Amino acid sequence: MQFTADTNVLIHGIAEPLAATHSILMKAYGTQVVAGVSPGLGGSERDGIPVYDLVEVAMKEVGPIDTAVIFVKPYLVLDAALEAIAAGIRRLAIVTEGMPPMDMVTLIRKADSTETLVIGPSSPGLIIPGEILLGTHPAEFYSPGSVGLISRCGTLTYEIALSLTEAGLGQSIGVSIGGDGILGSSFAQWLQILDEDDRTEVIVIVGEIGGSGEEAAAEYVAEAIDKPVIAYVAGRHVPKGRRLGHAGAIAANLSYKTEKKLKQAGDTALFDLNIGTAEHKIEAFKKAGIPVAERPSEISELVKQALKSG
């Protein structure tokens, strides 16, 4: 696992209200928050965390930094991320919602060329229970264990983590890859990470309607993952055409309308109007031999069955 209790963390946008709250919670959890960045506030402190104008200056003062958690406003995220990468930081967690899509495309290209892991945007980040908290996860819902939890959702991730904890099933990690249409990392990427993680014995994927990431994940599990995987898909009862809050679901809705027009025009060869629906994702998981929970409360029992069967 790339994240440990010794990971040094920088908060970019530490003066933002959300960051001001959660930087304290991260530090209280034991995360090594060694610096904050907020242009114009260099030389000050926020709750014992030194603040700098630039990432480069922060690293000269405090030494190497492994991870940056980004809370800046949406149109400033790309600059903050590129600044962190230029300074040598290779793990980014973007909490900010509403990052411009083309900015994210630019960031992905840069991340690929520098081998930088990006979580988000529009993500509560990552938690390794008992070791490190990056972002806005409510730490009290989690407990150390062997269940790897990968999700596109935010609050649903917390709900499932709490359900697992109450069932005596601790987690090796809880990570939300984000709810936007363009993301820095995928289900497949995290599946590979957890498949290689010695502490993780079973993996839970929490998907939702919109996009095709879950279908790709199901295919990847069938081809490359040795550990047992459990899935849940949110949004199966949402009426078609209904827009949801996540940008990814909105993008999928627009794509659905475009495909519908093409179908009416007779051009259907390259389009499947079911892609993005809960039914399509569930079918993909089942085809790959992955048990699918009907509701979040069923996940714990499926995980227990997977652990018993080895």
TrEMBL record:
Domain CoA-binding stretches: 3-99
Protein name as catalogued: CoA-binding protein
Top-level taxon of the source organism: Bacteria
Keyword Coiled coil attributed: no
Keyword Amino-acid biosynthesis in record: no
UniProt-listed InterPro entries: CoA-bd (IPR003781), CoA_lig_alpha (IPR005810), NAD(P)-bd_dom_sf (IPR036291), SUCC_ACL_C (IPR005811), Succinyl-CoA_synth-like (IPR016102)
PANTHER family: SUCCINATE--COA LIGASE [ADP_GDP-FORMING] SUBUNIT ALPHA, MITOCHONDRIAL, SUCCINYL-COA LIGASE SUBUNIT ALPHA
Entry keywords, A to Z: Ligase, Nucleotide-binding
Organism encoding this protein: Phormidium yuhuli AB48
SUPFAM superfamilies linked: NAD(P)-binding Rossmann-fold domains, Succinyl-CoA synthetase domains
Gene3D superfamilies associated with the record: NAD(P)-binding Rossmann-like Domain (3.40.50.720), Succinyl-CoA synthetase domains (3.40.50.261)
